[in-house]
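task queued by scheduler; priority normal; single chain, no ligands, no partner chains; default sampling; output format set to structure tokens
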Amino acid sequence: MEDTIVAISTAIGLGAISIIRLSGPDAIKIADKIFKGKDLTKVASHTINYGHIYDGEKIVDEVLVSVMLAPKTYTTEDIVEINTHGGVSATNKVLELCLLNGARLATQGEFTKRAFLAGRIDLTQAEAVQDIITSATDKSLSLFVNQLTGSLKKLIIKLRKDIVSILANIEVNIDYPEYEDAPKITIASLKELLYPVKNKLNDLIKESKNAKIIKDGINIAIIGRPNVGKSSLLNKLLEEEKAIVTDIAGTTRDLVEGSIIFKGIKLNFIDTAGIRESKDIVENIGIKKSLDSVSQSNLVILVLNNNEDLTSDDHKLLDIIKDKTHIVFVNKNDLPAKLNIESLKEYNICYGNTINDNGIDELKNKIEDLFNLEQIKPLDNIYLTNSRQNALIKLAIKEIDHALKSLDEEIPIDLVEIDIKNAWNYLGEIIGATYKEELIDELFSNFCLGK
């Protein structure tokens, strides 16, 4: 962190402004070399200064330059942000001049990485920064802003303190048994201290399912035989003509996808190829993709034709979805009923048609009920927001479970202590109190260049 980095922090292309960000010990000096206006080395911190960027004697652009002095900055280093007119040419020219005058092009996520290494934010907050950038709904934004404020960090720190207290009592009992002021550690008392930590970690795992829904949305596969109305249903749900609809069986041969925001949650619909026995090579590829989408989805909507009795293909599909979270949408209820409804009693059924939109709202309401969307409130709970955090919590629980089992088997306390220390270390990895350099490089490589 001894060098000065630079990157474009706004999207490249036409726009009102572009921002070129510098961070490091020479940020102000480098900017001042190419700026004509006030002397940037003498201006007050957190000020915006009007002037021009020059390439030698040639004006490049009229700009506003923000100067922020360490340590009260995003990276805790000196930061300069040059606001140019939006456009590729001017933006790249200012970036080039910064590089020619001593800055180094930042790697992806390096500004946030510096903020983490300086101790201004922890790893959960760093991950929240990237999630905020890619957030697609109000609920996901609220979730990540909550994490950015340090809610998860505070909980993990508290749990680690609780574990340290347990470890300290164990150490005193082992090393200083004659010390009368220390609480006497017994198998019963140690279990009594470990269970609250384990229960809190289990609560986090339970809530992580909701966090995934808030973050990624719900993936919904629409499946069925050809010509039962899958594509028409997709179009109605999306309120646009996304999929081609014809009376020709097998029109949809590849996956057609679209999303809507419903109750603050993103619903990702996948219209699949009609599933049936076929000798057509191309159609069979589409059918395989359809079946794969079933296993990868959070919800399956099986579309049946109210105007036809169940076929062997329908029975196969009903068998596929019975152990999945599902809704059977009986379509074409505006036509005479020929479907044997009695055979569908064990399934979650919704009736409607795509001609007059009958049943579409009911279908959405069933989705809401199945996933308790009204109960998902991102500010009410502390959530794990990614698989890295989730995996580390599970590893910590595994270590505590092993410690509890060892206590039941009357394993010596000093050996049980190893499991408890491992749990403490795993929790430290979540916030970055303990980490591997390769992990940090991998995590920040997923960020955009100017962040």
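post-processing summary
- Confidence is low (pLDDT under 50) at residues 242-254.
- The chain is about 45% helix and 20% strand.
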